[in-house]
Amino acid sequence: MSEYSKNNTVFWILLGIEILALVLVCLNVLPRELVLVSNAIVLFYLIVSPIEDGLFLFVASIPVLVALPISESFDSLSVGRIFILVLFFKWLLSKKQIKFQRIEILSILLLLTMTLSIIPAIDKIVAIKKIIYLVNLTALIIIVKSTIKDNVVFNKIGKAILISGGIVFLIALIQLIIIYFFTLGGFWDWWANHVSYNFYGENLKQIVKTNNAWFASSPNSSSVLRIFGSFTDPHSFSLYLLLVIPFMIVYAIPFVQNKIREGKISKQQIIWLIWLVSSLFFVILSGTRGIWFGIVFAIFVCIYLFIKKMNSNCVVSAIMIVLIIFIILIPIVSAFTAIPQFKESGGSDASLIIKRLVSILNLDETSNQGRVYIWKKSFESFKKYPILGIGAGNFPIILKQDIALAKAGSSAHNLYLNFLVENGIFAFILIVLIVLEILLNIFTVLKKNLSPDKRKLITAIFVFFVWIFGYSLFDIALLDERVFLLFLTILGMILAIERNPEVLKYE
User: Fold this and answer.
1) Which residues, 6+ apart, have CB-to-CB distance to 55 below 8 Å?
2) Residue 46 lies in a domain
3) 330 vs 336, which has greater pLDDT?
4) Cα separation of 441 and 494, whole Å?
5) Residue 429's pLDDT is what?
6) 56 in a domain, yes or no?
7) Considering the chain, what is the average pLDDT of its residues?
8) Rounded to whole angstroms, how far apart are CA atoms 191 and 175?
9) What pLDDT sits at residue 346?
10) Poorest-confidence range of 335-349, 437-451, 478-492?
11) Which residues constitute the domain of residue 217?
12) Number of C-beta neighbours around residue 255 at 10 A
């Protein structure tokens, strides 16, 4: 057996151990402490294995990174944060010099600015915790870009992302099936007390259980379940899938091209297309209106790329087809939610998704009124504390809420505005510059001599990043731990291409 085959076998065994342990714990077959054993095995592997193999396993494991049951009072620390520290120190020990790119410099400046916001923070402990959280996670960029030294490792990390997306998809599919065997209330109770508990720990479980967005409703309609997978809310779930979809497109686009040109398709391409369409289906079924609205930004950038001929028009057209499929699926998914098992009272309303879509621009809608109110309070807070803000993680205070609700999504419902309010004007300028720098980096990479598959992938990443940054005008789900880790991984891959010409070479 070759060294690669051995490593690949070990990878699947360890990933299987992680998933099996989590399943057994969630089903109450074994105690929650079992995850300590399974994650200890993974931790040992990360320490002794080559860093690229450890990174491969880590990225694939992002959806099953759970809170460690260390004690009754301390049971919400994500094992992923420990894994990142191990990988970072391995990288640090093997690195003779550190060379930062512009995005990393801007990110360091942002973190320093956030550190200053500790001074005015009412709850300084929360502010410190949030900064440590971001420093811990953003170290992943350095690990990824430094580890990807050639095309082989690049493709390996891309494969890991697809595996993680497959795990998220399967959990969502299981969730969809489960609701046929439970009442909606019974499902809510079981999932919150068993699955959420074992993923997030008792403290966060209680916060999520009492302040969740698992259901959608409209006047004169019963509540409908929003698919959220293993995430704390549907917004994070849908955003994670959205980040994975560009990697699916690389394999699904040939289906479109071959169908048009030669009429030739393969079973593998059909499977990729089905998975892609099904993922779009789940994104819509999450009921995340901001993502539906954000697609407008993606469409505009596709039109721009097409007109400017900045890329292969065939690639851009294929991505545009994916966006159109998403729009077409909205009324189909709306009809799907009329299934009685999806409903709180067993009623039928085949137009709820459509109603939510139409309500995006309706300022009289309850959710929109709440968002406008939050934005108003945010600007009032900014006027009082323009320079340093009110402190990292302290946003709930301006709404007179329990600060613990920050973990349940209490925010400005706008990523950029959230930084403005919590960390001041300089942090706002820096986050805008970081977003622009990210898009500029991807745009620069697109001008390089890329292989056909890399051109498809980078083009799709560019379009979907614009979509996500547009969606971030309405939510801060990008900062959810698992979503943020995946985002940082993809960003690290982009920086690796810019940093190392070897990554551009064909296999």
Assistant:
1) 87, 143, 144, 147, 157, 160
2) no
3) 330
4) 8
5) 97
6) no
7) 85
8) 9
9) 46
10) 335-349
11) 99-178+211-504
12) 21
